Amino acid sequence: MKMKSKQKITTFQLFVLLIHAQIGxxxxxxxHDLFMVAGKDSWMSILIAGFTIQxxxxxxxxxxxxxxxxxxxxxxxxxxxxxxxKILIIIxxxxxxxxxxxxxxxxxxxxKSWMMPMTPKSILILMVIILAVYAVWQDLPMIANFFxxxxxxxxxxxxxxxxxFQDTHITxxxxxxxxxxxxxxxxxxxxxxxxxxxxxxxxxxPFVKADPKKITRAAFYxxxxxxxxxxxxxxxxxxxxxxxxxxxIPEPVLYLVxxxxxxxxxxxxxxxxxxxxxxxxxxxxxxxxxxxxxxxSLFNRFFMKRAIVFVAGLCFILAMSxxxxxxxRSFSEYLRPFILIFSFGLPVFIVLIIKVFHKKEGTNH
Amino acid sequence: xxxxxxxxxxxxxxxxxxxxxxxxxxxxxxxxxxxYDVDDEQMIHKTVAFPQExxxxxxxxxxxxxxxxxxxxxxxxxxxxxKLEHVLPFKFDRSKARVLLLGKDxxxxxxxxxxxxxxxxxxxxxxxxxxVVDGEARDALFGRKYYSLEVSEFYYHLLKNTEExxxxxxxDIQSIVxxxxxxxxxxxxxxxxxxDEEKMIKLEGIALFSGDQMTGKLLDREAMMLLIxxxxxxxxxELNMKVTDDSPADPEDYVHFAIRVAKRKFKILPENxxxxxxxxxxxxxxxxxxxxxxxxxxERVIALSKVIExxxxxxxxxxxxxxxxxxxxxxxxxxxxxxxxHSFWDENNDWKEEYANLPIDTSFTVEVVRHGIIN
Lengths: 365, 375
Prior knowledge:
The complex is a heterodimer.
Chain A: H1 11-22, H2 26-38, H3 42-66, H4 72-114, H5 121-137, H6 140-164, H7 181-195, H8 201-204, H9 212-246, H10 252-258, H11 268-298, H12 304-321, H13 324-357
Chain B: H1 2-16, E1 28-30, E2 33-38, E3 44-51, E4 67-74, H2 77-87, E5 91-93, E6 99-103, H3 104-109, H4 112-120, E7 129-134, H5 137-141, H6 151-164, E8 171-172, H7 173-181, E9 188-195, E10 200-210, E11 213-218, H8 220-230, E12 238-242, E13 254-271, E14 274-289, H9 298-325, H10 333-340, H11 342-347, H12 351-356, E15 360-370
Parallel strand pairs in B: 1-5, 2-6, 6-7, 7-9, 14-15
Antiparallel strand pairs in B: 2-3, 3-4, 7-8, 9-10, 10-11, 12-13, 13-14
Helix pairs in contact in B: 8-9
């Protein structure tokens, strides 16, 4: 399978793609979910999770150096053979579809309770799916350009966070280590779902017009950016609400903005929710893109335009069949271990196999 | 493909029109001021004020803003809300409320359960200012003198204005929650009194809360002292003090000054088996009125600032005594103890009791930096 050469992107574009892949629905709820586990030490959990992922990116770098022209799906096929490789791809895809379903269902729940209680669920899902499908129909550089524009949204979020710092008490973060270090590590595991998306580097690197070292560095910087962003957001929310209120608020980031009032803008949270949809769409685009790559890879053909319709349709059906907050929560709970398996276990396993069997690109299995 | 795109974009257009979640202004009546009371049978009386929608006479340049006021009852706030639908010919919308008044009985009963629905509603008016009425909130919204302002505007400006001149701190619905829910900090709210003979409304100091219940009050001077103690907007506070022992006193025995710069040092020190709090204040003041004059003389100024220090100290101790009596930890001592003396916090599970007996020491250093344009 040959990638079309016009699909090549630069390292900066990769940096932007990865940032948007990681920052999605989760940022709205992440500070609350994290607080429920790690308490006042949430910020430590974020740092630990960020650091762990930096280490993982270093391991990914090894794989990239070994197979500079193959994406993860192709590597799986090369290492495990067509049949076993394809089974692994199917499992990976199933996981991706479920993530997409939960992602959309979560998005709708938040949008409904904050903005559009009466609008039917299917319309809200279609609204973002159509945008995502349209974007995936374009080529990767095009998507990257759109994401670069979307960076504005992230800076708006950072701006709001700093605005929240003006009326806060630093003692809301103290004492350190109140709940013990176990909960800090459990919190780090909790945040991993918000970081999900960093392993797309293994799917995207063949498209990048740079040497493996630069690709790894770009991933490094994007993860650093996301970690710092999450840190600012979480600390702002914790300082602003204090520990007892944050426990009551499942979407603290939106609530934070809602409690501001400006002379000109009556309900800033509405604007905020609207621009948040941009982040949701970008994450969805990345998810759809990687899933479509996988489906193409499964059939050994490059037929993005038809595969994406299938991917989008399946995610739509999944999202429609998950109802209510509590179902979403238990569903995400099932998916949680898979993040560890696919983003951490699988790459490490691949590295081990490469080390043991001295597999190299070009040599047949 | 081209066809598909065209049909697709038409579909998107259809979705964008979004007619499910429209809320037209013409179908709603905006509630601008809300008051909650509770009676002896635990029934909630909710009073709302909304602007009267009458066609304004184009020849009249000044529009006399009148408000319509309605009270409904219910066992919870939402039930009282629902009753409103029975009496009003239009939907009401509280999302633009600017003022929330709490009756005295309700405040002493505990306020959090009455606020729940406001926090739960995505359109809840989180930026409405909250105040306690010494009496019934209903009376504060009905038939008073509002100086040709709408009742909501009147309270909004009254509370904002007094905050700006350093008399009280105004809080909105959101800003009270972290304090309300915190174990180591307590709430204070502005307190409004109704003067019956003159049908007037007066802002009178501060209501002290312990947890979510009102437990005490501070009068004007103590309320201003509280601002200094809390180090919040302290540089807007103006105080008037008697500086001689003369009696009967005449205006020459008083000084009126404004605080220009206020610095606070907040220390919590271990003391035997307990803790002690030490608050050191460094104030730079400007004399605004001092009929005895002759402030060109440095020694005289230093003597004056010593007297002011002494008077401030007395006022501060009196204020702190009232805070402790009301079990109101508005200085956030508990929050600091929790953060910096964690073992003490863990050992003493009843912080409120500890707080009431905590030695809180204050000291003031006053420096006169300006005295207007005469000596």
